[in-house]
Amino acid sequence: MSLLRRAKGTLIHRAYAAILRAGAISPASPAGYRFRRLGAGVSIAFPPGAIFGEQWTEIGDHTLIGERVSLSCGMGPGVDLGPDSILRIGGSCSIGRGTHIVAHQSIDIGDDVFTGPYVYITDQNHVYDDPEVPIGRQWPRNSPVSIGSGSWLGAGAIILPGTVLGRQCVVAAGAVVRGCFPDHSVVAGVPAKLVRRYTPEHGWHPPGVALAMTHQAVNHQAAS
């Protein structure tokens, strides 16, 4: 009985692995042709999440998209979003499973960007300008998002409309990010704030330390 059970288990696992390989979206697969661009070596794992608006989506070479990742442009399928791409993911990125990237105006993700699982990135948010109209019925507002090359987004991070992250930034797990952050920033919290950054003179340090050290050096020079 144990031998039969092991044989069945082996067959099931092999069949499941074959299904995952066959279901993955690549530049050579029929589903891959719907994208504006899928670079060489791109793989979108099976099963995918909600994917629509492919003709406005570009993904660079050798980027890996995990299972159940949603990549969407617009409110739903069948909408004309104009002549230009809206969602652009660079090369050699790794997008963690369960992540949602929802673009309406412009989302730019640079090269070599890695995310943990269940990250949410969007360039659109609901508004509550009119206190008498249900929020879900008020027209949402768009603001472009840019994530610099080499950045890392921790598990469960939320990137809100209008966010601009520089190069080589770290977003802590669970952070809710809105605003502009320079290259080599570490941001964390709800709402996310700058907690560390890198400068060639001082290395990695809390915000304000470099300025304080500069003032100290200037004062010391003046005193001497």
From TrEMBL:
Keyword Ligase in annotation: no
Family annotation (CDD domains): LbH_MAT_like (cd04647)
Any coiled-coil regions, as ranges: none
GO molecular function: O-acyltransferase activity
SUPFAM superfamilies: Trimeric LpxA-like enzymes
Gene Ontology terms: cellular component: cytosol
Keyword flag Lipid metabolism: no
UniProt xrefs under InterPro entries: Hexapep, Hexapeptide_acetyltransf, Trimer_LpxA-like_sf
Keywords: Transferase
Record family assignment: Belongs to the transferase hexapeptide repeat family.
Identification of the protein by name: Acetyltransferase (Isoleucine patch superfamily)
Annotated organism of origin: Nonomuraea jiangxiensis
